Amino acid sequence: MSSSRMRGRAATVAALAGSAVLLAAVPAFAHVTVQPSTAAKGSYSTVSFKVPCEEDNASTVKLEVNLPTDHPIASVSIQPVPGWTAKVTTTKLTTPLKTDDGTVTSAVTKITWTGGKIEPGQFQQFPVSLGPLPEDTGTLTFKALQTYSDGNVVRWIEIPQAGQPEPQNPAPSLQLTEADSGSGATPTATGSAASAPQSGTAAASTTAAAGDSDGTARALGIAGIVVGVIGVGFGVYGGRRRTAPAGTGGSGGSGSSAGAGDGSGDGSSPSA
């Protein structure tokens, strides 16, 4: 095979590889989603509808979120979003909800935010408190409509089906999980409480042992000082007794140390 043909094939392979890299680098379109995506059944949870602006030459100016009517939620509270105004739509329920606070005959079925702008390349979150979440389903679906400043409306209303590819405009959904019974936390707390007295006893024993050691050390130190003082006293007293003959002896008369009192009379000290 000629070198020119080999170079041609290499160029073709490189071009195909480059095209594959470019295709992989193209980001998937963002969707309107619920954050976080899971919550416990029967709980009161705060979620946010995260809305990205996918247009290059238009801003998002309106968001409509429809709450499920087959599993209505008794309590819905909206957190204010600067620059946006929220309008709540309620509907009379065919079957009233019974809650701990009484019977609920109407529920929020739609929330509409207007007045603000989400510029291209930006996103906005719209927080909502929901509860109590239903216990007889595993998913809550919130169909949403996103309106742009150029009049384009994107309908996020398609419901994903098991075993099927994700639809182009999936509806935001919240997965409901079983409530945590908390049984796992109780043994841990009990174990911690039970271990606290043992830790305290061990600390007390250590402190007592340290106290005994300190007391013993002090006693030994005092005894050592006393013995040292007594020893010094005996040393001084003994030294005085040894030097007494030297001060009174007539021979030599030179006032030399006790070693000079051996009768030699020459007044010199003994050699070392």
Describe this structure in words.
The protein has 272 residues and is α+β, with helices and mostly antiparallel strands. It is built from 2 helices and 12 strands. It has helices spanning 3-25, 185-248, and strands at residues 33-35, 38-40, 45-52, 60-66, 75-78, 85-99, 102-118, 123-131, 139-141, 143-148, 153-156, 173-177. The strands form 3 sheets. The protein has a 5-stranded antiparallel beta sheet, with no helix packed on it. Strands 1-3-8-5 form a 4-stranded antiparallel beta sheet, with no helix packed on it. Strands 2-12-9 form a 3-stranded mixed beta sheet, with no helix packed on it. Strand 10 and strand 11 (153-156) form a beta hairpin. The longest helix has 64 residues, at 185-248. The chain is globular and about 70 Å long. The relative contact order is 0.12. Mean pLDDT is 73; it is low at 15-28, 183-211 and 243-272.
Question: What is the element layout, followed by pairings?
Answer:
Layout: H1 3-25, E1 33-35, E2 38-40, E3 45-52, E4 60-66, E5 75-78, E6 85-99, E7 102-118, E8 123-131, E9 139-141, E10 143-148, E11 153-156, E12 173-177, H2 185-248
Parallel strand pairs: 2-12
Antiparallel strand pairs: 1-3, 3-8, 4-7, 4-10, 5-8, 6-7, 9-12, 10-11
